[in-house]
């Protein structure tokens, strides 16, 4: 009530005027008392209204936000838990894969060793056969070469013999051979 | 008719023609030489026996080759070749020579020599062969370089071989 009275008194107060009759403030910095009173009253009213009408939705919104953040935190914790579980499974699976890989590698090594042993044995047999065949071929070739060489030598010797004989048969020899033949045939009965 | 009969038929016909012409000795001798040339020359054989070559062309070849021979010889060979019996020509001629020799009671003596024989050598060889075989011979000399040297004489089934070729072959077989 006092406040209202103070407001009314302030409202009824005559404003200050300068020499020209213009209304001026009583101090260059400080407001008029009425302004302080009206301003303070208006602010209080605003605050009261804000508290009454805006407070509950704000509190509700904050609560909802808190709840949402909590939910997100819970979800994150669950995701972390799931990730840990998955990581554990992956680690286990990796362990299984490593075991499988080791098993496969061991089997492959075993198979390779068997193949190598088998291949070596087969190779040795084939090598022995090849050596035997090569030896036989060499022997046959040597024999053939010998025969061919002998035949060639005989052929060359024969041809040379014929050439040498033909070269030595001059006219005189030819006539001598003819006369010898005639004499020999004439002498035979 | 067998080939032998046909050959003999041709030989008899040629013989009768040559005898009728009165040129039997020359024709016989020329035919014998032609037969030996024919035997030793492969391209001549192929030409005269090739049925793809027209008969007129084959006869022209014969006439070219026997240009200096008696007309009877040329006509007889030309007739045999023209009738497509060129392949049988040596056998026909040999049969004719045998027939001609037989008509004169002679035995054909085929003599192969690396070099030609002189008339004197031929006479002495004929006498020697007559002495050796006891038969009168009709000497036919063939110059055959493959003999190399000496002589090979064939009288009927008898072969008297004094050729260098045979000795060289014997040496080769020993090798």
Give the topology.
The complex is a heterodimer of chains A (189) and B (175).
Chain A: H1 2-12, H2 33-168, H3 171-187
Helix pairs in contact in A: 1-2
Chain B: H1 3-21, H2 24-40, H3 42-49, H4 55-65, H5 71-82, H6 89-103, E1 107-113, H7 119-133, E2 137-143, E3 150-155, E4 158-163, H8 164-174
Parallel strand pairs in B: 1-2
Antiparallel strand pairs in B: 1-3, 3-4
Question: Could you explain the architecture of this structure?
Answer:
The complex is a heterodimer of chains A (189) and B (175). Chain A is mostly helical and 189 residues long. Chain A contains three helices and no strands. In chain A, helix 1 crosses helix 2 (33-168). The N and C termini of chain A lie far apart (198 Å). Chain B is an alpha+beta fold and 175 residues long. Chain B contains eight helices and four strands; from the N terminus they run ααααααβαβββα. Chain B has a four-stranded mixed beta sheet, sandwiched between helices. Chain B starts with a helix and ends with a helix. The chains are: A mainly alpha (189), B alpha+beta (175).
In helices, the fraction of residues of chain B equals 55-70%
- Tell me the greatest interface: A-B, 24 and 25 residues
Which range best describes the helical content of chain A: under 10%, 10-25%, 25-40%, 40-55%, 55-70% or over 70%? over 70%
Number of strands of chain A: 0
Distance between the termini of chain B: 48 Å
Helix and strand string of chain A, N-terminal first? HHH
Cross-sheet strand order for the largest sheet of chain B = 2-1-3-4
Biggest pleated-sheet summary of chain B: 4 strands, mixed
**Poorly predicted residue ranges of chain B:** none
Q: Point out poorly predicted stretches of chain A.
A: none
User: How many DSSP-defined strands of chain B?
Assistant: 4
What oligomeric state is this? heterodimer
**Largest β sheet strand count, sense and barrel closure of chain A:** none
Average pLDDT number of chain A: 86
Average residue pLDDT of chain B: 87
Q: What overall geometry of chain B do the principal axes of the alpha carbons give?
A: globular
Helices of chain A, by number, come to 3
């Amino acid at each position: 009530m006092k406040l209202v009275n103070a407001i009314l008194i302030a409202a009824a107060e005559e404003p200050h005027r300068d020499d020209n009759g213009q209304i001026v403030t009583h101090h260059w910095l400080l407001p008029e008392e009425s302004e302080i009173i009206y301003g303070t009253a208006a602010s209080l009213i605003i605050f009261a209204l804000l508290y009454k009408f805006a407070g509950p939705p704000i509190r509700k919104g904050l609560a909802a936000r808190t709840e949402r953040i909590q939910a997100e935190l819970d979800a994150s914790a669950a995701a972390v838990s799931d990730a840990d579980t998955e990581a554990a499974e992956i680690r286990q699976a990796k362990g299984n894969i490593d075991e499988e890989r080791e098993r496969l590698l061991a089997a492959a090594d075993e198979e390779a060793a068997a193949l190598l042993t088998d291949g070596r044995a087969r190779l040795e047999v084939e090598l022995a056969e090849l050596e035997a065949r090569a030896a036989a071929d060499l022997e046959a070739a040597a024999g053939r070469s010998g025969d061919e060489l002998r035949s060639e030598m005989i052929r060359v010797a024969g041809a040379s013999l014929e050439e040498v004989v033909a070269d030595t048969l001059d006219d005189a020899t030819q006539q001598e051979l003819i006369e010898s033949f005639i004499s020999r045939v004439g002498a035979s009965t | 008719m067998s080939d032998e009969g046909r050959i003999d038929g041709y030989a008899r016909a040629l013989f009768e023609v040559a005898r009728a012409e009165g040129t039997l000795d020359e024709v016989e001798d020329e035919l014998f030489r032609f037969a030996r040339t024919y035997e030793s020359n492969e391209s001549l054989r192929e030409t005269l026996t090739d049925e793809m070559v027209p008969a007129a062309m084959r006869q022209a070849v014969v006439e070219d080759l026997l240009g200096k021979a008696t007309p009877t010889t040329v006509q007889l060979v030309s007739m045999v070749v023209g009738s497509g019996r060129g392949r049988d020509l040596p056998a026909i001629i040999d049969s004719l020579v045998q027939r001609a020799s037989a008509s004169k009671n002679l035995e054909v003596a085929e003599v192969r020599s690396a070099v030609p024989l002189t008339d004197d050598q031929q006479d002495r060889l004929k006498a020697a062969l007559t002495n050796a075989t006891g038969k009168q011979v009709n000497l036919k000399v063939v110059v055959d370089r493959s003999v190399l040297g000496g002589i090979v004489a064939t009288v009927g089934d008898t072969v008297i071989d004094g050729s260098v070729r045979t000795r060289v072959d014997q040496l080769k077989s020993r090798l």
